[in-house]
């Protein structure tokens, strides 16, 4: 399987509602999943394959909670990455950032986006407050649960 064929499969998957696809070709198996960290390219010869441990099951959360992970301590809220990917603090390279330190935000304000599999996932404020700190820069790779910003 060539790199161009693999890229074409990734592009096709990103434009569809598929969650997982597995292709067998030339003695190799390619499995793509939307769950970051669980995709694997492994030979079909039965060799053991290294795969990160599955994330522990989380209790169901409301749709607002799934938009971003929030850890609140009193009047301070750390907004964390909802998934692994690349963080962008602005809508485009030429545009100013969504928010800046010292800026007042309201619930629902877009703080940044996290790109995963060519999908841009907005990270929004869960409450009104003021941006106290930004812990990442545009283009940084972030892990799910990693703190991105602090709102007070």
What does this 3D model show about the protein?
The protein is mainly beta and 152 residues long. It folds into two domains: 3-43, no CATH class; 66-151, RNA polymerase II/Efflux pump adaptor protein, barrel-sandwich hybrid domain (OB fold (Dihydrolipoamide Acetyltransferase, E2P)), CATH 2.40.50.100. It is 11% helix and 38% strand. It contains two helices and twelve strands; from the N terminus they run αβββαβββββββββ. The strands form three sheets. Strands 4-5-12-10-7 form a five-stranded antiparallel beta sheet. The chain has a four-stranded antiparallel beta sheet with strand order 9-8-6-11, with no helix packed on it. The chain has a three-stranded antiparallel beta sheet with strand order 1-2-3, covered by helices on one side. Strand 8 (110-116) and strand 9 (119-124) form a beta hairpin. The longest helix is centred in the N-terminal third of the chain and has 12 residues, at 3-14. The radius of gyration is 18 Å and the shape is elongated. Residues 36-68 have low confidence and may be disordered. InterPro entries: AcCoA_biotinCC, Biotin_BS, Biotin_Carboxyl_Carrier/Decarb, Biotin_lipoyl, Single_hybrid_motif. This protein is a component of the acetyl coenzyme A carboxylase complex; first, biotin carboxylase catalyzes the carboxylation of the carrier protein and then the transcarboxylase transfers the carboxyl group to form malonyl-CoA. Pathway: Lipid metabolism; fatty acid biosynthesis. Residues 57-72 have a biased composition (Low complexity).
């Amino acid at each position: 399987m060539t790199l161009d064929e693999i890229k074409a499969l990734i592009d096709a998957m990103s434009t569809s509602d598929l969650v997982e696809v597995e292709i067998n070709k030339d003695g190799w198996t390619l499995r793509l999943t939307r769950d970051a960290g669980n995709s694997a390219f492994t030979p079909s010869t039965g060799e053991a394959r290294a795969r990160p441990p599955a994330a522990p099951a989380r209790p169901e959360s409301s749709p607002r909670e799934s938009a971003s992970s929030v850890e609140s301590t009193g009047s301070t809220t750390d907004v964390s990455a909802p998934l692994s990917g690349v963080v962008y603090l602005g809508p485009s390279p030429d545009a100013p950032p969504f928010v800046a330190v010292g800026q007042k935000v309201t619930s629902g304000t877009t703080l940044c986006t996290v790109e995963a599999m060519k999908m841009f996932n907005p990270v929004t404020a869960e409450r009104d407050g003021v941006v106290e700190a930004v812990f990442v820069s545009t283009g940084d790779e972030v892990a799910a649960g990693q703190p991105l910003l602090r709102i007070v």
